[in-house]
Amino acid sequence: MKLRQLTLLFMLAMLMTAIFSGCGASGPVGTVKAFTNAVYNGDMDKAAKYVVEDQRGNMDDMGMFGDIMSIPGIKDIMKAMKKNTKYELVSQDGNTAKVKVKVDIAKAMGPLGAMAGDEGVTETIYTLENRNGKWLISDYR
Questions:
Q1: What distance in Å separates the CA atoms of residue 4 and residue 126, rounded to the nearest whole number?
Q2: CB distance 78 to 68 below 8 Å
Q3: How many C-beta atoms lie closer than 10 Å to residue 33's C-beta?
Q4: Closest C-alpha to 47, from 71, 20, 67
Q5: Residue range 118-141: mean pLDDT, rounded
Q6: Rounded-to-integer distance, Cα 18 and Cα 20, Å
Q7: What is the CATH architecture of 3-140?
Q8: Which of 14, 24, 30, 108 is the Cys-Cys partner for 134 at CB 3.0 to 4.6 Å?
Q9: Can you tell me the distance from the alpha carbon of 114 to that of 137, in angstroms, rounded to the nearest whole number?
Q10: pTM of the entire predicted model
């Protein structure tokens, strides 16, 4: 894999774990899973449905994923990353919740994934709000 493709892939993984989203998909964890699955499948329109409306403009940054998804072998890598993504409800209080997402890039990509640092694991905390009965991601860290 060329260095440029590896760099784009790494940027995709980091951006994916650091973008907001959510919709009423079985609570906060279900919402984050639905969002990340849409991203892994390259369906940014679907992913945007899980983001609070006032943050959907930030999804424009993900437009480059269309190009990345056309790289040979990327779909297999995304499939492996999906298998190596873990979700944890950190807190839920009334209409707000926090969900931790860990992606083990090293396991998904083997030796190349270890270049991601921290043993090849990325971690993001998503903040969600329950708006009109639907959980939507409003922020990330």
A1: 29
A2: no
A3: 19
A4: 20
A5: 89
A6: 7
A7: Roll (3.10)
A8: 24
A9: 29
A10: 0.75
Task: Break the chain into its structural domains and give their ranges.
Answer: 3-140
CA distance 136 to 141: 15
E-state strands within the chain = 85-93, 96-104, 121-131, 134-140
Q: How far apart are CA 128 and CA 115, in angstroms?
A: 30
Q: How far is CA 14 from the centre of its chain?
A: 8
Please report how the helices 3-17 and 74-83 are oriented relative to each other, as an axis angle in degrees rounded to 10: 40
Contact status, residue 52 vs residue 131, Cβ threshold 8 Å: yes
Q: The tokens of 30 are what? A: 């279900």
The token pair at 83 is 């298998």
Taking the CB of residue 73, how many other CB atoms lie within 10 A of it? 10
Cβ proximity of 34 and 23 under 8 Å: yes
